[in-house]
Amino acid sequence: MAELPRDVDEVIRRALAEDLGPAGDVTSVAVVPKDAAAAGRFEARAEGVLAGLPVAERVFRAVDPGVEVAWRAADGDRVGPDDILGELHGPARSILAAERVALNFLTHLSGVATLTRRFVDACAGTASVVLCTRKTLPGLRSVERYAVEAGGGRLHRFGLSDGVLIKDNHIRLAGGVGEAVRRARAGVPHGLRVEVEVETLAELEEALAAGADRILLDNPAPALVREAVDRVGDPERLEISGGVTLESVQLLVAAGARVISVGRITHSAPSLDLSLEVMDADV
């Protein structure tokens, strides 16, 4: 399992600041006695794949180190309705103050992991891999990428500084596929791979002639994928992206696609239905 991203505590800090605001949880302060203790139980209400358990735990600890969490599951595990994921106990006000932020992370990241696993399962038994993209929710890219790995997916470049990916707008401004690739090869730091997006076989040939390291074939039909694999020769050098669905991914794999990037696993993953039931610690 991947390690938590280095900025996870900063991501949590921002989320808590957003939710608690300058005055904190005024409802719990007004309603719940200061010295009250509470216990809670995390439960799954739907089938899916978990991601974000340690993130949720860090949320509670950030609010109050006195909150103790004990998990019965781990990130990457498949769960089903009524499965108990873990328990917690500690100061009641602290648990309530952290509850929503912890669940927001846990349900969203588990949703990302769940959708990723569905795409990975659709490619099972083949050499094809599923990658995430930069189509992430602002401020959550690092933890969403962590969730992609929990779901069995692979990682593309983190940001714009990690590699060259020449897209349609770059091509338009540079004056063509070949010219954009040539400028990139001449102008980027040594060692950075140059990848270029194409839509047609003619553009693919132009990219190859200019020395592109990898070709991204955008929104292709399976027949185009098959022809592109033949032209490139090495399927690992060809990335398929754009409009990939659970229904189409198997057709693309059958056509020879080996590297498939899917934006929807981060930008459109539905949250996994998980709950935290909190009760008086003496009950």
Output the keywords:
alpha/beta, 2 domains, TIM Barrel, six-stranded parallel beta sheet, single chain, four-stranded antiparallel beta sheet
Q: Which class of the largest domain in CATH terms?
A: Alpha Beta
The major β-sheet equals:
6 strands, parallel
Q: Helical segment tally?
A: 11
What share of residues is helical?
40-55%
Fourth-level CATH superfamily of the largest domain: Aldolase class I
What's the overall average pLDDT, rounded?
Answer: 96
Structural class: alpha/beta
Write out the strand line-up for the largest beta sheet, numbering strands in chain order.
6-11-10-9-8-7
Radius of gyration: 23 Å
Any idea how many domains? Answer: 2
Give a verbal description of the structure.
This protein is α/β, with parallel strands linked by helices and 283 residues long. It folds into two domains: 8-120 and 270-280, Aldehyde Oxidoreductase, domain 3 (Alpha-Beta Complex); 124-267, TIM Barrel, CATH 3.20.20. Helix content is 42%, strand content 19%. It has helices at 8-20, 26-31, 53-63, 92-122, 141-150, 168-174, 177-187, 201-210, 222-232, 249-254, 264-267; strands at residues 37-44, 48-49, 68-71, 78-79, 84-91, 129-131, 164-166, 194-198, 214-218, 238-241, 259-261, 274-280. Helix 1 (8-20) packs across helix 3 (53-63), helix 1 packs across helix 4 (92-122) and helix 7 (177-187) runs parallel beside helix 8. It starts with 7 loop residues before the first helix and ends with a strand.
